[in-house]
Design a protein that fits this description.
The chain is an alpha+beta fold and 211 residues long. 30% of the residues lie in helices and 19% in strands. The protein starts with 22 loop residues before the first helix and ends with a strand.
């Protein structure tokens, strides 16, 4: 094939290798990802029910806070509306809260005007971890491989990411061509960070996780 003629002379990116030296901290971080703590503040409990409407129309039962809380749990655990209703009901029983649970039809109807986004809540300056990794993209024509055994043309992109070291949440992302230098994307990543920056570190991916 013509594109393979000079493959040996093209610039090759060596595969990055990283060594974990802080295994105890790394394993503690992996275990922390599985912990789950949910509570309702007193302000949220007081604002759960909707305020009385003074204009004409039906009286809403749930406040926007209640709907947004349920939709946040739905987005976090990738649930359907009925499963979200069941999860909220079980949480009310576990926490012994006498609060009404929005049904799945109410969640579906009121989810349209609400844009639920799960964002990290970082207090103070941000400790940002920056790294880049390759992404292999496969084009259309998957059935050609299965039917005729032909190979697909594959392309690569670089995925640049900035992660909050305290919460593990993604704070900034950039997608570039594969020949883009990693250092050149530090500026665009920092432009996406609105919190004050305390420290900036270069890190690496180990086994699919940040180390």
């Amino acid at each position: 094939m013509p594109f393979k003629h000079h493959a040996a002379h093209r610039q090759q990116f060596p595969r990055a290798k990283y060594r974990v030296t802080n295994w105890s901290t790394y394993e503690a971080g992996l275990r922390q990802r599985g912990s789950l703590t949910i509570w309702f503040s007193e302000e949220a409990i007081q604002a759960w029910r909707a305020a009385p409407r003074t204009t004409r129309g039906g009286q809403p039962r749930y406040s926007s806070l209640a709907i947004e809380t349920a939709l946040t749990l739905r987005a976090l655990f990738h649930l359907a509306f009925r499963q979200t209703e069941g999860l909220n009901g079980s949480l009310m029983q576990l926490l012994r809260l006498d609060l009404p649970v929005p049904d799945h039809t109410t969640l579906s109807r009121r989810a349209r005007p609400l844009a639920v986004r799960i964002r990290p809540q970082t207090a103070g300056a941000l400790h940002l971890l920056v790294d880049s990794t390759g992404l292999k993209l496969s084009g259309p024509g998957e059935w050609l491989v299965e039917k005729h055994g032909s190979q697909k043309r594959r392309s690569w992109r670089k995925f640049h990411i900035g992660v909050d070291a305290r919460t593990g949440q993604i704070a900034a992302v950039e997608l570039t061509p594969p020949d883009t230098d990693d250092a050149s994307q530090v500026g665009p990543l920092l432009d996406q960070v609105t919190a004050p920056l305390e420290r900036l570190n270069r890190t690496g991916f180990v086994g699919g996780h940040l180390a």
